[in-house]
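Dear Dr. H.,

I hope your travels went smoothly. While you were away I took the liberty of generating a structure for the chain from your last submission, since the lab meeting agenda had it listed for discussion. I wanted you to have the full record in hand beforehand rather than looking at slides cold. The sequence, exactly as received, is reproduced here:
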Amino acid sequence: LPPPPLPVLPLTAIQVCYLLRQLRAGGKRTYIGWTWREPWYRCAQHNGLAPGGVARLATGRPWMVACFVHGFPTETHARQFECAWQSGLSGSDMRHVAHFRPTAGVIGKLQLLRALLFAREWRSHCLVVRLVQSLTPCPREQTLYRKMELALQGYPHIVRGPHE
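The corresponding predicted structure, in token form, is as follows:
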């Protein structure tokens, strides 16, 4: 069977930073990226279903979009945000939170994301975070999704929903 069609984001959200997570049981690897396309298409590239993608992600397949952030005014803002999210505590905006120690994996990346969203440089942009829930109804996936929601607790611009 061919893969299902990839959903399309509105044109106003075309600059996207996304977080991928490994789908394998016990997989803790994550990847943060930027795209001007829909994050679903970029994920398909990383999974080898479309041309392109990052070669080092081939060993961690399959990948799933855990969340993505959109609403950046320009590509430059989106790329700067991606860099800040990837650099984490070494980024200049994060130095004021010396006591902040994120956990590992997806939850740790979402804790960093929350801190970035409230940082001076980014809070005025009213960025929207889309949490993506797996269509798999297994308890492990449901527990992870609840933990993802808790990691972003307090941020007002969150859209929750299933993986489309």
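Two observations you may find useful: Residues 28 and 104 are 8 Å apart (CA to CA). The first helix runs from residue 39 to 46.

With kind regards,
E. W.
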